[in-house]
Amino acid sequence: MRLLRALSIASILLFCVLALALPAAYQRMTSVVPPNTYLGFDLNEYPGDAALPTLRKTFSFTNFWLGPPPGEKQTNWAGKRATLKAQGPGFVVLFTGRDGHNLKNAQDAQQKGILDAHNAAKSAEREGFAKGTIIFLDIE
Fold first, then answer.
1. What does pTM read for this prediction?
2. Which helix (H) or strand (E) segment is 104 a member of?
3. Is residue 52 pLDDT above 50, yes or no?
4. Res. 92: pLDDT tops 50
5. Neighbour order of strands in the sheet with 90-96
């Protein structure tokens, strides 16, 4: 019983020490950004041309939707690559993957995957991305 009580008291003391120390440690950790660290933002909706200079102060890259983001019928990112590039951020190029429920079998998935890859590549070319640009398939 005494051992259990001693362990309980030690646990409570340890918790109190950690509770006091962690906020300071977290503050030190977040106040120093390691070299070669790049922050980016990922939005389904294009943020608007006026927001870009403010976003660029913090972020080094943005996503770029080649087609409609998940759950949407269209994208408002189309035609915005030149405007974004003028602001200087890098890109994570995205294309929405199909929901698995819409695939009948492996052959259907392969055919639709080839079609989607072709559409993504055409969209990337139309937006001015270089051949060989990596396009990430976004699956929700």
1. 0.71
2. none
3. yes
4. yes
5. 40-41, 61-65, 90-96, 135-138
Read off φ and ψ for residue 9, nearest 5 degrees: -65, -40
Contact call for residues 87 and 62 (beta carbons, < 8 A): no
For residues 49 and 75, membership in a common domain is answered with yes
- pLDDT given at position 31: 58
**Cα within 13 Å of Cα(138), Cβ side:** 18
Distance CA 3, CA 14 (A): 16
Domain co-membership, 100 together with 127:
yes
- Rounded CA-CA distance 63/91 in Å is 6
Is residue 92 within 8 Å of residue 84, measured between CB atoms? no
Range of the domain at 95: 40-138
Same domain, 105 and 126: yes
